[in-house]
Each structure stands twice: as C-alpha cells, then as structure tokens.
C-alpha cells in the first residue's frame, strides 16, 4: 500500500540520511525503481511530473500501475507516489486519483499568493492523509536551450511557508534540473544552513540531484536535506545502455527486437543508478 512521505522523511531527518525521489516515465522505470528499493530494503518516493503523468495516460493510470506492482511484486518497503512540481489544479487531480503525496510548486507566484495557495492545499492534502511539499526560491534548469541558474531562497520566506504546515520544503540553493554547466558555482551551503536554522526539524528537499558530487550531497544531508530528487541521471543511463544495445546490432540478432529484450539493458542501467544513489544518500536498510 502506498504511504505518505511524511514518516519516512521525518525518520530520515532524525537519522541524518536522505530518501531518493526517482521520477518515473513508464512501466520499466517504475518496476526498476521499486525492485531496487525492495532489494536494498530502502524507502523510496516515485516522482511524477505533470508531463510524465500525461505521457503515462493520466494520474489514475499511474496509480493503478503502481498499486498493481506493489501487490504483484510483493513490495513491502515504504513507497510514496508523489506529484512533482504540481500546479494548483494538478494537485487536486492527484489527491483525487489516489497519489499519497503532492508537491505544490507556487515558486513562480509572488510570495503572498504562494502562501495562500499552499495553505489551502495543505488542508486539502492532509484531510486525505497525503503529505505535501512546497517550494520557495527557484530551481534553475534548461529552458529553450538556456540554462537558468535559479534563485536562492530567502530563509525568512522559507520559515513563512514552513509554518503553513507543509511536511517538507524545497528551497533553491543554487541547484538546477538537468546537467550542471561547467561554470556552475556549486550549492550555497550558507543559504541551506540559514534555512535550517529557521525551519528546525522540517525535512528539506534537494531538487536537481543529477550530477551533484557525493561530497556536496553528504554536506547537504548534514545540513538538513532529507529528500533528494533524481530524474535526468536515470534517463541518461537508460539512453546510453539502449544505444549500446542497438549499436552492437543486438536488435537484429535472433529476437533481439522483442521490447522485453531491447529495453532490458536500459532497465538494468536504471537499477544500477538507483542503487548508487540510495547508497550515497544512506537510505539502504532504512525501510
Ligand atoms: P534532475 O533531473 O536534475 O535529476 O532533477 C530532478 C528533479 O529535481 C525533479 O524534481
């Protein structure tokens, strides 16, 4: 059964490790992530962006697929199904569809509006037993070929949003989605430290987990990060393994064109990536 992410993240914060949020794109992704979590006895969060939800034929389809796998694959570790960077309406749709956690990303609104909408959604999520993440500051990333550096969160605004009763908080600290550019300045630990000073026990979330070096990840965890989001790295690993299979001509040997064979190396690459991250984040054996 799906669980809210609150308990697993409170435990992670107290135990000084982080739980990975791995974004899913299809059945192979979901299965690879769930099997790895089970093998490593680790809690896990499956992230679904609005775009991925649409791609997978809607939130209800995703809920059906994930619930089916939990049962048929005998997954007993804690699993949360979480809307990633949800808009106002998507949050309500996911609450309805059976997700166990949502993120409301109101970071592009003026802070007053972010606060008002977050407050309303906290009540709606908690009423149905879901956990909720909010965002302050912006997380950079590539848009139309330009890499935005994001905007560091104001610790006072973080405190304001934390006080609304959110279960965990994403704050921009120089992190960006996708690959980091060569001139990236690194994470702002000063900002992270100031945020934790004001928000206390609240688990903090680090987006853009792809490509952040292990020493920075460890330092971020020591300063209160308890959830780390990874998406692009699984996509790169999947694409590289699939390319290797095709370039070796394996799809043209025997029944190598069978999707169950063709997608197998990519699925294994996702498993290897998830394992590496869970070990780095310290969540192995914490289920
Ligand atoms: P990456 O794609 O950079 O790993 O970021 C994932 C993320 O933060 C999803 O919200």
From TrEMBL:
CDD domains attached to this UniProt entry: TBP_aldolase_IIB
Pfam families: F_bP_aldolase
One Gene Ontology molecular-function label: fructose-bisphosphate aldolase activity
Protein residues bound to dihydroxyacetone phosphate: 178, 208-210, 229-232
Domain of life assignment: Bacteria
Key word Lyase present: yes
Names of required cofactors: Zn(2+)
Cofactor binding summary note: Binds 2 Zn(2+) ions per subunit. One is catalytic and the other provides a structural contribution.
Keywords, comma-separated and alphabetical: Lyase, Metal-binding, Zinc
One BP term from GO: fructose 1,6-bisphosphate metabolic process
Residues annotated for Zn(2+) 1 binding in this entry: 85, 177, 207
Positions with a binding annotation for Zn(2+) 2: 105, 135
Residues at the active site: 84 (proton donor)
The protein's Enzyme Commission number: 4.1.2.13
PANTHER family in alphabetical order: D-TAGATOSE-1,6-BISPHOSPHATE ALDOLASE, D-TAGATOSE-1,6-BISPHOSPHATE ALDOLASE SUBUNIT GATY-RELATED
Protein name (record): Class II fructose-1,6-bisphosphate aldolase
Organism of this sequence: Candidatus Eisenbergiella pullistercoris
């Amino acid at each position: 059964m799906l669980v809210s992410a609150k308990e697993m993240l409170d435990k992670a914060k107290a135990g000084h490790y982080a739980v990975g949020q791995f974004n899913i794109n299809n059945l192979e992704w979901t299965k690879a992530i769930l099997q790895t979590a089970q093998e490593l006895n680790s809690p896990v969060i499956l992230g679904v962006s609005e775009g991925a939800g649409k791609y997978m034929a809607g939130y209800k389809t995703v809920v059906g697929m994930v619930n089916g796998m939990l049962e048929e694959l005998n997954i007993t570790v804690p699993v949360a199904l979480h809307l990633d960077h949800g808009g106002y309406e998507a949050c309500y749709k996911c609450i309805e569809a059976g997700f166990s956690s949502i993120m409301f990303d109101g970071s592009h609104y003026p802070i007053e509006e972010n606060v008002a909408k977050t407050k309303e959604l906290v009540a709606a999520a908690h009423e149905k037993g879901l956990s909720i993440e909010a965002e302050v500051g912006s997380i950079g990333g590539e848009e139309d070929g330009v890499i935005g550096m994001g905007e560091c969160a104001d610790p006072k605004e973080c405190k304001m949003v934390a006080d609304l009763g959110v279960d965990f908080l994403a704050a921009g600290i120089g992190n960006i989605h996708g690959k980091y550019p060569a001139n990236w300045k690194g994470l702002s630990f000063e900002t992270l430290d100031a945020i934790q000073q004001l928000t206390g026990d609240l688990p903090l979330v680090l987006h853009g987990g792809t490509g952040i070096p292990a020493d920075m990840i460890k330092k971020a965890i020591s300063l209160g990060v308890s959830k780390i989001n990874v998406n692009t790295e699984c996509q790169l690993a999947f694409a590289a393994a699939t390319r290797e299979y095709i370039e070796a001509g394996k799809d043209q040997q025997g029944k190598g064109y069978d999707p169950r064979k063709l997608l197998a190396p990519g699925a294994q690459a996702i498993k290897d990536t998830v394992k590496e991250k869970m070990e780095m984040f310290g969540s192995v054996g914490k289920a």
